[in-house]
Amino acid sequence: QSDWTWVAGAFVLSLLMAHLSYHWVEVPTRQYLSQASLWREIVAIAAFGVLIGLAAVTVKLKSFEGRVPEAVEIAAGEAKNLNHHVDECHQCVDTSCNYGHGNLGAIVIGDSHAASVVTSVNQANNSQSRIMLWSFNGCPTAKNAKFSPITGKPSLACFNFNEWIFDQVRSSYNNVPLIIVNRLGFAVFGPNEVFEPTRHNHPTIYFSEIHEFVNASFINEFKKNYLDGMCILSKKNPVYLVRPIPEMGIDVPKTLSRNIMFGRGNEDIKITLAEYHERQKLIYQIQDEAAEKCGVKILDPLPYLCDDQYCYGSKNGRPLYYDDDHLSEYGNKFLVPMFEQVFKDHKIGVR
User: Fold this and answer.
1) What's the whole-model pTM score?
2) For the chain, where are the E strands, in sequence order?
């Protein structure tokens, strides 16, 4: 879609196919129908309609195993390997979204990135207690955060959700480990997807005033309110901040499966470590200050998703993400050792 040679070629091919379709299909069909009786016309049109309808239903309902090479199916299939249970409680002020049973072991708080890793937190705990999820798509865990108009969401939805969280923690959940997972780069700098270039550098939230672009005033407001939120949560609870999950910028399953399908190889999707740190530099600084000021602990996913050069969106031909920035149910299991530290600390009473 970003290569104008292909785009121009697609237009030319579309015109050519339209020309051939007109002369070989449309004109002969119109000539036949104009000469046929009304009854034959109705039968012919109905027959074609039934044929097309049956084909559409078959394609919709039936899985054609072996239609494409297995490597393509593995790569493309990861797009559906996500936690569908989260749909029941994501973006709700509710305490019923639990994974596992028994006493409450931890609460995972944040946006859709929190929802995408909650099952790995549950696995890290060996299901010895239940894990609760409080998540709202696109809403960073910061005091006074409101959705920017560019999101198309009610501005106070994020504010109200976070206020509910702060109230719940203060009143009912003392000394419960809180794991905070946010796509903060998205909140501050907007999306980094290659297909949304017009939204780059546009904050998706605001505090006292709306900022169309990232500037010093917005950054100062974000920093203050984020730190305020972390200090509120950590006052009576152990808090664990997860460093930003690497954002690939392209749909990993779609890109990898198409690369294999069209003979471009199955080289793993990745970004450089330098690209990651360039986007997340400010976020790191603010999280480090939260650790120093509020006593929160930092959990770093990079040792599990990156090496000394690259952060990987796929490994050995299998995506770790179900889109461009959310870990799949396969990919999030790479973080189980990271989350195990939460339960080791809490078990021995280390905050």
Assistant:
1) 0.82
2) 98-99, 104-110, 130-135, 146-147, 178-181, 205-206, 239-242, 270-272, 297-299, 310-312, 314-315, 318-319
